[in-house]
Design brief:
This protein is of the alpha/beta class. The chain contains 16 helices and 13 strands. It has a 5-stranded mixed beta sheet. A hairpin with a 2-residue loop joins strand 6 and strand 7. Helix 3 (33-49) packs antiparallel against helix 4 (91-108), helix 6 crosses helix 10 (262-271) and helix 10 (262-271) packs parallel to helix 11 (291-299).
């Protein structure tokens, strides 16, 4: 075949005549309205989806089959004017072309019911491309394409489709699926002492505040919610030295950007039965009247008559569902580790930075373990307590895999 092709293209006049014939046949194809609409949609969607890639799309065909002219149509990627084999594309690019094809087909044949099932669309794509593809997929769902996604990426978890999120867990007893609705989210908020929740706004409220770092919590075996980046970066270093590798155990420590957000995210993750622990300090800088801390404590079931006692503490307080780092995290660490302040000063000079979260992490890395030191005793108590809590929740085996179901209007479903 290669030899035939070489001889064929040796004559420029013959090649020109052949191209004219092929173009004539393609123009006949376009007399079929459905095909012309499909071709236009395919080119438009592919163009929008591949603007940040080197490959473009064009519809072409090899020698036609008289029994079915359309059977010989091919989608050929081109790079700098040269046609490439489909197999030459990366897996991520192949997947995007398949999505463009499905969307064009759905848009062209409106009377057809099409359900597109995507298994881990994030595979082979870097985080920025994942975020971009997620937006494209959501747009396709809004256009009417029925899409089911299994994913391990927070970029494909969309809280706007709250009742379409299914959290799948696997343990020795089998596979378990957890699914909730706006009603059950609202009920859980009310049951855990939320005072401003409203049924019609609770889902948009969570969706508008969710960021990928927060949504990572859906993939954890257990969670520790902390105020900010300082605790998020430093605590794993302390836990490692007392025998708890949080990443190995599937435990995620997430900074929620302030005391006022602790209760909010605690409510979401406990609704999906993910063991969730809350850590904060009694720094009153952004919580002078204590309402933010009280909201967090009420949500996790701390009795009203104990709140003032917890909020007035100036040293460690470790409970079944929360930990208070005294007056503030850094002050408590300095008081709990005899050499903390010296190492902290050394790290600031070494790093040439006073960025508190970076300094806190590097200081935690450099403190030598000593089981007689109060700081290590407390860290081990906290780590052991939380590890026990997550183990009691059950061994899930593989990582948790949310399934997002973007289905548009329920009336559009074919089943």
């Amino acid at each position: 075949m290669r030899s035939f092709h070489k001889r064929l293209i040796a004559d420029d006049d013959r090649v020109d005549r052949l191209k004219e014939l092929f173009e004539s046949i393609k123009s006949t194809f376009h007399e079929v309205p459905e095909f012309e609409r499909f071709a236009e949609n395919m080119s438009t969607v592919a163009g929008e989806m591949l603007t940040n890639m080197t490959h473009g799309l064009e519809l072409d065909f090899s020698a036609y089959d008289p029994s079915n002219y359309f059977r010989s149509l091919r989608v050929h990627p081109t790079e700098e004017g040269a046609t490439r084999a489909f197999e030459e594309l990366g897996t991520g690019q192949q997947q995007i072309l398949a999505l463009a094809f499905a969307h064009a087909y759905s848009s062209s044949f409106l009377g057809e019911n099409l359900i597109l099932i995507l298994d881990e669309p994030e595979a082979h794509l870097h985080p920025l491309a994942q975020r971009w593809l997620s937006r494209i997929i959501n747009k396709m769902a809004e256009d009417g394409l029925q899409i089911v996604i299994t994913t391990h990426s927070p970029y494909f978890v969309n809280l706007n489709y709250f009742d379409g999120i299914y959290l799948v867990r696997k343990d020795e007893d089998g596979t378990h699926v957890i699914n909730h609705s706006a009603q059950s989210l609202y009920d859980h908020c009310i049951e855990t002492n939320a005072t401003r929740a409203a049924l019609d706004t609770v889902v948009p409220f969570y969706a508008n505040n969710a960021i990928p770092r927060i949504l990572n919590g859906f993939f954890a075996k257990g969670l520790i919610l902390v105020e900010g980046l300082t605790e998020e970066l430093a605590l794993p270093e302390y836990f490692m030295q007392v025998g708890l590798d949080v990443e190995k155990e599937g435990i995620d420590i997430i900074g929620v950007q302030g005391k006022g957000n602790l209760a909010k995210w605690w409510r979401l993750f406990t609704l999906f039965e993910i063991p969730t622990f809350v850590c904060f300090d009694n720094d009153t800088g952004d919580d002078r009247n204590g309402n933010k801390r009280k909201d967090a404590l009420r949500s996790i079931g701390i009795p009203e008559d104990q709140l003032d006692g917890v909020l007035s503490g100036t040293t460690w307080s470790i409970n079944e569902s929360f930990c208070v780092f005294g007056q503030d995290f850094e002050t408590t660490m300095r008081a709990s580790f005899p050499d903390y302040e010296d190492i902290e000063k050394e790290k600031k000079e070494e790093l040439g930075s006073s960025s508190k979260h970076i300094v806190a992490r590097e200081t935690a890395k450099s403190i030598a373990y000593d089981d007689a030191v109060e700081g290590w005793i407390r860290m081990k108590e906290l780590a052991d307590h939380f590890k026990t809590t997550t183990e009691e929740a059950g061994d899930e085996g593989d990582a948790v895999a949310p399934v997002t179901l973007d289905i548009g209007d329920e009336d559009d479903l074919p089943f």
